[in-house]
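Hello K.,

You asked for the raw outputs rather than the summary table, so here they are, unedited. I folded two proteins back to back in the same session to keep the settings identical. This is the first:
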Amino acid sequence: MESDASVLKLLHQRLGEKWPRQVRPNVSDAPVQGFVIGVTVPKYSPPTVSAFTRAHPEISRRIVAWIRRSVPDAVFSSVQVNRNYAAKRHTDANNVGPSWIHSIGRHTGGKLWTEDRGVLDPKRRWALFDGNFQHETLPFSGERISFIAFTSRAYNRLQPPAVSELRAGYGINAAFSNFEEHPMLRGLAPMTQLVNVEEVKRRDAMFDSEDSNAFVAFSTGYNVGRGKAMLRLPGNYTWEGEIPPFAGLHKMNGASRIIVAPNRTGLICFVCNPTERTVLPKRFYLYHNNEVEGQKMARWLETIPSNAVVFITVSDTAVKKSDGVLPAALMGKLTQMFGPIPPVRYRAPIAAIKLPGGGKWVTGTPSEVVRLEANREGFHEFRDLLSRASASAEP
């Protein structure tokens, strides 16, 4: 069984003074000693297994096993290992947020200052912090090797072979493909929600339906886990055409679940053909050009067959803060399909469903969860204000 001492000895024996160098301008103005185990996202490339992991499989396996035994509840896709440098104040913009840190080696000082939790001492124990808040390493002397177990925002966009390699080969527990989510990372929630298991379960339970024939749209405002959208379709559906880069389709218990990737601006649409059991995805970038994209979307909606089931949702914000009004042509078409359309607010949730007999559009505040269910009895709307809004609706 690994310990601080055995891991330190392992690194001394295998790496000595020949540590890999990393260029990390967000934490240091100069190259630093360090490496990543597990998921990495190379520039201009899809997420994959880090080069260090494959080059040093024994080191990688033993460090991951050590973390898994030391912190049984930790969920992570990657481990950043640092040697002898103090990270400047920064935020981990590409991480989910919840991170575990521990430092070993003969050193004094080197505590972690965090914006949200004050000063933590990772030398004495594994400490949980939220990397999406500002943090920095305080001064230290001696040899300090730190380990940060975190989850990349790309943890569920891996290719299936990489998922198998990371899970079976190295013990990484947050590695998925097709936008599938780890149960404790639903919606890429910040730490303040992640550590509240009951809150996660309650929110997830709101998505399910007792009616096996119901269509369900579920959307959260940006304040609730940085935005999220899920859809449920009765029956086993497949994509029409190419797989979209902004959503995943999963089949379970006689139904299909569409999970929209987080932080995708604009309006996201899905046209379902109940006869062919296919789903046509489409995204309109109103956030970037409200007028042009709005007119484009209005023309596209005109082409949808009357017997189709249409979903419209959002996983970040539909429009810019300054563009609260949709183009008139689009508003007219949406009103025709879904009935009255409330004002489209910046970073507010949207759940809209159109059936052959009519439609409904539901929205809320950036701190609310909205859920819309459509079945034989009509439309059923639900909204919930979650008190643990952990991120400001302002950018």
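The second followed immediately with the same parameters:
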Amino acid sequence: MPNLTACLHNTSLMPSCALAAESHVDRLYRFSRRVYQTNIVGTFNLLEAARAYWQQMSPEKREAFRFHHISTDEVYGDLHGTDDLFTETTPYAPSSPYSASKASSDHLVRAWLRTYSLPTIVTNCSNNYGPYHFPEKLIPLMILNALDGKPLPVYGDGMQIRDWLFVEDHARALYQVVTEGVVGRKPTISAGHNEKANIEVVKTICALLEELVPEKPDGVARYEDLITFVQDRPGHDVRYAIDAAKIGRGTGLETAGNVRIRYPQKQCNGIWTTKPEWQKRIERQLPFGTLRNRKISFQMTFSAREVV
């Protein structure tokens, strides 16, 4: 932690945004200790470093400083009704050890505000997607496996519903919150009811690939034929959805009705046959393997607004 505190002092960060986390539920089944170390102990370390940094500031800078903790809608658990939405006041009810670790980190941030008056803000967002999406996540995993002619594993019946948010829209909202947000508030961020079942997302990807990459791997007649239903994840929540009316009014986020395939053609050239350096680094650092029936493949990449 001394190195972390020194980093804050040396860079003079104003404010500090904490986005780092082990964010893939499947990782918990194999790397649980590392997940808790990152999501809980890591947040503690960041808070203590930020507190030490904040306490040595001038009164004017102390007033302007913010510690912005970025969290997830998974801390709220399941939504059972079709019209229910998560809000700033939804009680925490995490369903999995992963979401419990994120809830723990949120509570730490709240406690540092209450106990030490560290000026903190917490935001909870819906599922992100976009450029540089880590290859083990649903959307890139489906694309990569399809291009290799591998099974497209879908948990359970695939009817788990998620509220999708393009990463650049999320970044714009985060900037608004950290520059204009009120200390102690917990804004919820999404694009405004962009809900899709996982199976619908996967079928959308398959349809998109039929158009963009008609030459398929040997033995594959249709990409959709690769869809394979596998045993559901333990503690798998059925539906997440966020009431983003409050945050949406100030950010210009894409709103309900804009759920569609988006893939600018100018960003497609060469995308399916080249492997950028960032993905090569992933290959060197992570082993190939299987996480709860989901095969990890680091063969190609994608970019821009693929689907949803």
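Residues 162 and 240 are 5 Å apart (CA to CA).

Happy to rerun anything if the numbers look odd on your end.

Regards,
P.
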